[in-house]
Queue: 2 jobs
Job 1
Amino acid sequence: MSRKHQHFKGAEVSCCVKYFLFGFNIIFWLLGAAFLGIGLWAWAEKFSVFLGLIFFLELTAGILAFVFKDWIKDQLNFFINNNVKAYRDDIDLQNLIDFAQEYWLCCGAHGPNDWNLNIYFNCTELNPSRERCGVPFSCCVKDPAGDVLNTQCGYDVRLQGELAQQEFIYTKGCVGQFEKWLQENLIVVAGIFVGIALLQIFGICLAQNLVSDIKAVKANW
């Protein structure tokens, strides 16, 4: 009994490292429910490998985003235009488009005329909709003094010239506005990703330390 007791004294798993690592990874698990099942498997089998894999995938995604930025721009344009077409068909897509247009002060993928892709807003003479030649309310320039949301503010606005439209609606496209926002906040966005990457590298080191402690204890058994 005394010999076994001496072996455990010689090699012990650090409680601080163990519980700190556990709490550290809980934070990352909360970022997405999709990681929960993988995280449980990784905890039992190869935890440090799991963190390393996530870090590698994020790094790869960042590199691909830079290399294929034109392709990503095209995909964003395709995504917005598809959602414009289905604006009245899906309430979730409608809310998404409204949020994007209000947040980035834009209208359509490249401008208000992109709303011709929607059967309710297009300007064809055969369109019986009251929203014909209009845009959604989220395209409208907000009145700072207005307390009540006017959901009809975009009606018939595209029957006017472009200069006249600028008084009532945003005329810049969301793709260009998103690019502008990304450039203006590039340091912040890059800083966030670098911070996450450094935290994950720190987590990998902690995981490796924990694995080494466990192996040391098992070796004394």
Job 2
Amino acid sequence: MKKKEGVKVLSEALVKSVTYKDDKLEIHLKDGRLVKTDHIVTAVGLEPNVDLAKSGGLEVDSDFGGYRVNAELQARSNIWVAGDAACFYDIRLGRRRVEHHDHAVVSGRLAGENMTGANKPYWHQSMFWSDLGPDVGYEAIGIVDSSLPTVGVFAKATAKDTPKAATEESGTGIRSESETEDTATSAVASVTPAPVVENKDDYGKGVIFYLRDKVVVGIILWNVFNRMPVARKIIKDGEEHADLNEVAKLFNIHED
């Protein structure tokens, strides 16, 4: 897929140094390889600016960084913090700090409401997403941590199971806007039985569950779109599930 989109992946590549020569950036790798390019994009997350902590008497979280706030996003009397800079208490998943566009929008709105006396807790489970070309994309929610146990359930993909098709259906390229807060209380598992796997290469869509103490705390939807309300409800319920294959049916992944 990456080669088809013109992407070359260099595995086990550690950068030793970068120099500029003859109008090109030269990336020197630790194993001796040299990569020449016009531009470099570095995606390493961020570190919140907490300079106001001392002058404002605000608490900085030692584990996650950012200003420590309560469930109402309040750092202290008459001071609220939202977005990437807020280390908030998630009433379902515990203390967290989140760097998502969806989180910034919703937490900013809630902080504004609470400034006017709403006193609402922040319960929203923000989602994030990425498209790896027109044919492969994912959406995720909750704690997606590679150190956690995972269970994946996959099915055969069709032409409609692509980011391109999802964008055309929703009319927007920002799926955090199209994946609304609609509740999923009426979700019913598909009665279509899971197919017998014959060739794993044919299975291009699925659901990956991340578990903590046998409870689902994170979900990745791989080429599965417009199902985020279902994922939110699963995390909100916080229940143990004996068979995650049955839970995966809630996402209708076995339907053509």
